[in-house]
Structures are given as structure tokens and as C-alpha cells.
Amino acid sequence: MGAYCMRICVTGAAGFIGQNLVSHLMDMKHEVECYEYTPNRFPDPSQYDWVIHLGAISSTTERNVELIMDQNYEYSLKLLQMCDTMGTNFQYASSASVYGNTNSFIESGPVYPQSPYAWSKYLFDRFIQQAMGEFKVLVQGFRYFNVYGAHEEHKGDQASPVTKFTQQAKETGVIKIFENSDQYLRDFVSVDDVCNVHCQMLQQDVSGIFNVGTGAPVSFQSVAELVAKKYGAKIETIPMPTALKGQYQSYTSADLTQLNKNVTINFKTVEQYLNDQ
Q: Cβ(224)–Cβ(177) under 8 Å?
């Protein structure tokens, strides 16, 4: 499958990753159509070479299980089935939240989803893995690790620490971090690198579920220190909210063995990203 102009539908195109991905795809001269979720309505996959399904309730603190299952699981399932019937390749957003509290981040390994959001992503991944040999089209799922970057500001509390700390540093000169933040290490991956993964994988004749991270975790404390240094801010420690205890991953690090067989990306570090701002 060589590089050529494709017709691509992006669901959730108004979201954080969606806005960035649409820009990347258009820069590559693909023909892009944006689609936003409407209950019981779907894009027409027959019009496209690929559907890239990013649309979802992405809040990890959303408690309405019925709503999440309806939008994140049932809707995704129906859209995938339509794509498979009409011969349209399918990329979709999964999440590293499916792994839960573990030190093993292999796509085929055990998972421990902790929230309704993580469960919805896991169940769809599980369906994909069990049906993988039966699809007539390419199906590529991406387990995003901690994505950060441009167009994330509207996410409020759901924004990445890189964006939240930067906003705090600029607005108040004080970055607030949870106690023991030196012990929480996450795999922070820039949204530009995530978009590059999507774009390179469009050219690969391969199906599967792939981790998308850097494989090099950094502590929340380190991120706060990098941001504080750049903007001359102070760091203040606060208690962790009760609502987050128990479902808060203490460590994530993408195993990139499968992804690296298909793409070539020199992943940007948080420090490199901040230096470019």
C-alpha cells in the first residue's frame, strides 16, 4: 500500500487528538471529513478508504456506565461492522488505562481496567482480538499512553499534567502536584508523535492492537520541575483526591515491540517538547 491521497473520515474530530490528527492528515494531502457523535447515526463508510474512530466519552472519572457502554462500546462495534461490510479500513483509539495497576504493558498480556472508561476500551479491544482473523478489512487499534500537546486546554481536569502544569505556571506561578508525585511514573507521549503513528500505519498492510507511547516513563514530579524551570514557577504539594485513589496508575511504560515493527518514529521527550514551545 503506497503513499497516496486517501479519503478518510475522522470521528471525534473536534476533540484534542482529533483536531491534531485532522491537521496532520490534511498536511499529507489526504481528503478528510470530520464527524461528531450523534446517537443512532453513523457516517457512511462506503465513501472512505479509512474510518479513524476517535470519538468517545474520554473522561476516566465518568460514572454513568450505561452512557459509556452505549457510546464507547456499542457505537464502536456497529461502526466497525459497517466498515467491515463495506470494505473500509478501520483505525480506532484505545487506551493504556486498560492495563490498570501492573508493570507489564504487552498488548497480548493481562489487563486490570479500573474505571468504566477503561472497561469500555478493554471490551472493544477484547472483541477485536477475538475476531481478528475474521475481518475483511484492516483493523488497527492504538492504546494511547499519556498524550499531551496542542488543543488540550479545554479538557480541564482531564488534561495531561504537561498542559495543566504549564497553565498553572503561566496563570498563578504555582504548580500543584499530589504528594508522592516522585513515585508516579507515566509514559508521556506528544500528540504529534501519536498523529505520526496514525499516518504511518495507514500505509501498513497490518491489523492488530498497538501500544502508542515512548517506552520511557517520567515522574509527575520531574514534569513539574521541567515546567517550573521553564516558566520560573514554584511547586506546591497537595493531597490526592479520594476519588482518584484506587484507580490511579502508579506506573505506565509502553512496550513498543509490535509498533516498532511497522513505524519509524523518534519519540519526543517532555523536555524536548517544552524547549520547542
A: yes
Are the beta carbons of 243 and 158 closer than 8 angstroms? no
Predicted confidence at residue 145, as pLDDT, reads: 96
- Name the nearest CA neighbour of 227 among 178, 277, 154: 277
Residue 61 confidence (pLDDT): 76
- What positions carry a catalytic annotation? 117, 155
Residue 145 near residue 252, CB atoms below 8 Å: yes
What is the DSSP-derived secondary structure letter of residue 74?
A: I
Q: What is the pTM of this model?
A: 0.93
Quickly count: other Cβ atoms within 10 Å of residue 171's Cβ: 9
What pLDDT sits at residue 246? 63
**The three grid cell numbers given for residue 49, joined into one nine-digit string:** 478508504
| Domains of the chain, residue spans | 7-146+189-213+254-268
| Mean pLDDT in consecutive groups of 10 residues from the start of the chain, 277 residues | 80 95 96 94 97 89 89 96 98 96 94 93 97 97 96 83 94 93 94 97 98 96 96 94 72 96 95 92
DSSP state of 267: P
Torsion of Cα atoms, 260 then 265 then 267 then 273, to 10°: -160
76: amino acid identity, one letter: S
* Alpha carbon distance 265, 210 (integer Å): 14
**C-alpha cell read off for 107:** 498488548
Taking the C-alpha atoms of residue 208 and residue 113, their distance in angstroms, rounded to an integer, is 20
Superfamily of domain covering 7-146+189-213+254-268: NAD(P)-binding Rossmann-like Domain (3.40.50.720)
CB within 8 A of 172, min separation 6: which ones? Answer: none
> In this structure, are residues 233 and 168 in contact, taking their beta carbons and an 8 Å threshold?
yes
Instruction: Give the ranges where 107-208 is alpha helix by DSSP (H).
Output: 116-131, 161-171, 191-201
**Count of all residues that appear for the chain in the document:** 277
pLDDT value of position 63: 84
